[in-house]
Amino acid sequence: MYKVTSFVLKIVSRCNLNCSYCYMYNMGDQTYLKQPKFMALETVQFFANRLRDYCESSEIKYVQIVFHGGEPLLAKPDYFEKCVSIFKTTAPKVEFVFTIQTNGVTLDQNWYTLFQKLEISVGISIDGPKKYHDEYRVFHNGKGSYNLVAKAIQLGNKNRLAGLLLVVNIGIPVHDLYTEMKNLAVNSLNLLLPDGHYDQAPLGLDVNKWNDKNYTPYADWFIDLYKIWKADKERPKIYFFESLVKLIMGQDGIGNQLIGRRTNGVLVVESDGSVEVVDSLRACFEGITRNEINVHNNKLEDLFEDETFQLYYKAHDHVAEQCLNCPVFDICGGGFLGHRYSEENGFDNPTMYCQDMVRLIAFIQNDILNALPAESVAELDTERLVYENVIKGFSTENKIKIDPVMQQKLVSFKKELHI
Ligand code: SF4
């Protein structure tokens, strides 16, 4: 039984920026070109009808709607008024949480005033200090977008800005990044690992060192940031760190598509009404998320028959054998599905950030244990970890064997079997 409560609406399929690492425009998949530029309000209404029916039949009371793109602020202000009205009048029994994820370059006071009126919480994407942000988050003419984004963030501090989203760039010295966040008075920040997989290394990774068992550039970066963050009494919320700490402490219901063991109850509606699995999987290969399902013709539940959705929904159960035997599996969850892809094995791999996750989780886990009194440590079902031992354990024979049917399923997603 599947339960989806988060719906990402691609209301605009184009963007006023051209970020070099963007999965939509610069990695693996060009299918956005076939999409209408804006989601028609008629399509929003069709989706709202499907959503109401799904919520009624599945007894879902709370739903998150994420206005996304491309760049959603390329839509007109009254478009958002109409969308919110459509949802509230079509499904009055459902409680909606509306959010928008924007690049912030056109986000001014008028937008903030509107979003507060409509109770849409705003998240802005940024890459870090100007020098780094402007290297990647550029307009189509190559000009950097930092000045406009920083202005929108500062304005947001007076307008209940929900938080920032940052794709990690390990080329940014962590001290510079943290200082930047403090200067911008950021209250809440989430960190994303860059999209990439075994055949397409993300920016900043030295592929020549990939087989080195001690090469953990992301963990090294995160650990330095964690130390600065932890020492700061006025620290902002960093969702990635807070989630890891909670997972290590054994808290239930924590995690997302990147970490933990929760199911991924998210689906995406494209601007033509297509209903798909999260689009960041497109960095694997062209068309991986495509199917024939559309809100104009189908119930939302029809996506539950889609093999890619099924795999993604339980991605933290459907993992490679190494993960099943890993001592940090309950915290890492095998990583984001898209980071596990290789042309050789499909999804039958640990995340490409596996060594980094072991190093980072071991560090935070040991740090927590060191800070706790001995009697509290004894109550926790958690042990001190030595990175080298965990990595060495990966080369010994696995006690838990992967179900051969599941392994076959993971491998069946190889690109060559889909073209
Ligand atoms: S750390 Fe590596 S082996 Fe362990 S669960 Fe994560 S991806 Fe799998």
UniProtKB/TrEMBL annotation:
Gene3D superfamilies: Aldolase class I. The keyword Iron-sulfur applies. Residues 1-255 form the Radical SAM core domain. Its EC number is 1.8.98.-. InterPro entries: Aldolase_TIM, MoaA_NifB_PqqE_Fe-S-bd_CS, rSAM, rSAM_sf, Sulphatase_maturase_rSAM. PROSITE patterns: MOAA_NIFB_PQQE (PS01305), RADICAL_SAM (PS51918). Its cofactor is [4Fe-4S] cluster. One of its GO terms (molecular function) is 4 iron, 4 sulfur cluster binding. It comes from the Bacteria. Keywords: 4Fe-4S, Iron, Iron-sulfur, Metal-binding, Oxidoreductase, S-adenosyl-L-methionine. It holds the Pfam family Radical_SAM. It is an enzyme of class 1 (oxidoreductase). This is Anaerobic sulfatase-maturating enzyme. The lineage of its organism: Bacteria, Pseudomonadati, Bacteroidota, Flavobacteriia, Flavobacteriales.
